[in-house]
Amino acid sequence: MRRFRKAFPALLLISPSLILVGIFVYGFLGWNLRVSFTSWQGFAPTYDFVGFENYAALMDDPIWWRDVRHVLVFTLVFVAGALAVGFLLALLMEKGVRGENLFRSVYLFPMAISFIATAIIWRGLLNNGSGDSTAGINKLFAYAGLGFLHSDWHKSDSGWAIAAIALPAGWALSGYIMALFLAGMRGVPDELREAARVDGAGEVRVFWHVVRPMLWPTVMSAVVILAHISLKTFDLMFAIDQRSPRIETPALYMYHSVFPGNFYARGATIATVLVLGIAVIIVPYIWYTMRAERRR
Amino acid sequence: MKRRSFIALAAAPAVAPLLVSCSGDSPQVEVFTWWTGPGEGEGLAELERLFKEANPDVEFVNAAIAGGGGDQARAALATRLQASDPPDSFQGHAGEELADYVDNGVIEDLSALFESEGWNDVMHPGLLENITRDGKVYAVPVNIHRANLLWYNVSILEEARLSPPQSWSELIEQNATLSEMGVTTLSIGSAWTQLHLMETVLLGELGAETYSGLWTGQVDWRSAEVVAALETFTEVLKVSNVSEAAADWQPQLDKIVDGTAAYAVMGDWVYSYLTTNLGLVYDQEYSAAETPGSVGVFDYLSDAFTLPVGAKQRENAEAWLKVCASVEGQDAFNTKKGSLPARTDTDQSLYTDYLEWNLGQWLDPATVVVGSLAHGAVARPGWKTEIETALGVFVQEGDAAAFAAAVADAYQRTTG
Lengths: 296, 416
Description:
By secondary structure, chain A is an all-alpha fold. Chain A has 13 helices and no strands. Chain B is α/β, with parallel strands linked by helices. Residues 6-23 of chain B have low confidence and may be disordered.
C-alpha cells in the first residue's frame, strides 16, 4: 500500500500519455496485426482469420521483392552518404571556421523543411530533360562545362535509380548528422588530446587514436536514426514521382494497396513486416544503450 | 474494445475538425468533392451560388480535398464512410467506382427522386445506364468528360505537312518527320497519364466493342489480339518522351504549347486549362482530334453526386442533388469546368469552340459510348490499382504478355 501511495502521483502524472500511447500506438499496432490475418479486401471490413496466407502471398509477390530491393539500395546510399557528408562537415567545423554558428544553422536548416516541400524542390532539380528542356542540376552541370555528367536521376533505367532519392534525403539530414558528430567531437575532453600531443602525436594520430574511438556511440546513434528514417521514408518518393515503379518502396506499396485499392489485408501485412524490419534495427540499439546506462 | 468503436477511434483525428464545424442542428449541407483546381473550383462555386439562392437558410459546407484525380479525397472519404460519418453528399465517378459504393451499401437508391423529378427522361440514356444497378439509380451526374482525345500543336503539324493520325501505326510513322524537325512526337506525363494513354491505344486498336468486353470478362486479356494491341502501346511509347515524362498532365501539355512536342493524349479538361489558364485560342494555337482509331467513339467519364446512407441532413442533401440536376446548375457548372452537361435538354448555345464540337458528338445517336479505365468508369478500384501497378512494370520492361496475364489474374482475384 505504501509503495502504491508513493508511486500513485507519478503514475497519475504520466497516465495521460500512457493511455494515449497505449491506444494510438500499441492499440493500433495490434489492430493492424489483426487485419493482416484477415482477407479484408474491399470497402467493408472483414474480420475472418486466414492465418499466414497474406504473408505467404507477399513472399511470392515480385512487386514486394522489387520494393524491398529498392529500400535496401536507398538505405545503403542514404545512410552512407549522410554519414560521410555529416562527418566531413563536422570535421571542418571542429577545426574552427570563422562564422561557425552561421554555417551550423545553414546546414541544419534543410532538416526543418518537411520532406514534401523538399521533394517538390528536388523534383525540379532532378529533372532529366535533355536538349532544350535541360533543367535543374543537369543544367548546372552544363553551365559548368560538365555536360557529360548529365544524369537521368530517379528516371534512369538502372535498378539503382532510387539512389538518386538519397540526394534530397541526404541534403535534408546530413546537417543533423553533422551536429551529432560535432557534439561527439566536442565531448572528447581536451586533457586527453593534450596528453596525446605531449606524447608527440600529430593531429592525425590524435584524431585516430583519441577522438575516433570515442565517436563510436555517435556513429551508432546516427546509423540507427538514419536507417529507421530511411525505412519509413514515404513522402519523398510520393511527391517526387508519383506511382513511379522505379522508386517504389514497401511503404508506398502499402499505401497504394489500401488507397484506393482497398487491399486492407495486404496493406496491413506490409505494415507489420515493416514494423518488424524497423524493430530489427532499433531493438538491439535500445538494448545496447540501456546496458550502457546501467553500467554507468 | 468493440470493433466499431475501434474504427471510430481510427477515424477520430480525421473527423474531429469536421465535428466541430458540424455541431448543432443548424441547417446545412456538407458536400464532399475533389474540386479545388482552376475551372472545377469555379464550377463548384457556381453550384454553391445556385444552392444558396434556392435554399437561403441552409449553410453550404464545402468539404473539398485537393489532389490527384481524387485519390487523396477517396482515401479520406473511405475513412469517414467506415466510421458511419458520411458527408451529406459526395462526388464519385459514374460506373464501376460508384458500383463499388452501391455493393457496399453506403449510398442510397435515388430512383424515387429520379421518378418524381422526371430526370429519367432528360439524362443522357447511355450515361443513365452507367449509374443504374439492378434497375435502381444511385447518383446524380453533373458533367461529362471525354478521354479519347489527341491534343496537338497546330503550327507544328502545318510545318510538317501532317494531319492528326487515323491509326496508331500512322502516329508511329509520323515520328520520322517530327523527329527530323527536333520535335517529340508524343508527350507523356506521370503514371496515371500512361494508364490513360494505354486505354486509348486499346480502344483504337481493338475497337469499341472489344474494348468494352475487356472490362466485363467477355474478352480474354491473354488473347493474341489484346497482346498485339499492348505491343502497339510499347511501340507508341518508343516515339514518346516517356523516359523524360513530365510530372503531371499540365506540364505534359506545356510541351505541346511550347512546341517541343506535337501530340499529347489527355481528357478534355485540357480545354479549360489551355483556354482559360494559358489564354490560347482553340483551333488556331492548339486543337484536338479523336485519338487514333476512335472516330465516332466517345470514351466518357462523369462526375456524379450521391446520397450516402446515414446523411445527417437528408432533406438538404436532396435539395443539393436537385440543384446539381437542374438545367441552370448543369449549364453554370459545365461552362466553367469545360465539360458537357449530363442532361440532354440544356442550352446548347452556351457551349462554344471545342465544347460545341464535342457536344454535337455526344448527342449524336450514332456515337458509341464507352467508359474510361483511368477515370473509374469500367474497373473496380481494386482491379484498377492492380492494373496500375502492373502497368508500371510493363512500361519499364515492355513485356506485353506478362502484363496481360497480370491484369487477367488481378481480375480473377478482385472480382472472383
